[in-house]
Amino acid sequence: MTERTPLPDLSTDKDFEGESFAPIYTTTVTVNGGTASHGRASGRARSADGALDIDLRMPAELGGDGQGTNPEQLFAAGFAACYHGALSLVARQVPLDPAAISVEATVAFGRDPEDGGYLLHIDLVVKWPDIDPEIAAPLLEKADSLCPYAKMAWQGTPTTITLAS
Fold it and tell me: What are the tens digits of pLDDT across the range 80-115?
């Protein structure tokens, strides 16, 4: 018999007060450039705790060999997992069973017409069989307001870039 994974101890019912961001979890991932000295083309991504340790490769559509994962796949996985977690949390509060929910994230990488740089476009599709759309709509909206990936997509994320000495 397979043991059930315990739910995280996160809730929208908890009160958080204060003027500044209060981290609950922090992680660090380091990417090196590999044989091409290019993180996207031949890099390796390793988390500080060793749980993530993967080769990065350019997808064939961008001229790579497609023989590894790429940042867009990792971002799509993170976004879908985070939104799924937020939606599961709000569904349980109604209470509804979130077992049938799946979230599909499509991330498109392309040129930014404003500056010639690059942009990502994200499409999330929630699959929730047998749910009334009128019941689901406010739950999807609430999950959108809770999911930090969605907040990042809508509002941006405070970012610092520092050259280590």
Answer: 999 999 999 999 999 999 999 999 999 999 999 999
Global pTM value? 0.88
Question: Please, which pLDDT band fits residue 142 given cuts at 50, 70 and 90?
Answer: very high
Residue 43's CATH number: 2.20.25.10
* Eight-class DSSP state of 145: H
Here the tokens at position 141 are: 């909206």
User: What does the buried/exposed string (b/e) look like for 21-57 if buried means 16 or more CB atoms within 10 Å of the residue's CB?
Assistant: eeeeeeeeeeeeebeeeebbbbbebbeeeeeeeeebb
Q: Which residues contact 26 (CB under 8 A, 6 or more apart)?
A: none
Question: Which residue(s) pair with 107 in the sheet?
Answer: 122
* Residue 132 domain flag: yes
Q: Are residues 76 and 63 in the same domain?
A: no
Number of domains in the chain: 2
Angle at 112 between CA 110 and CA 116, to 5 degrees: 110
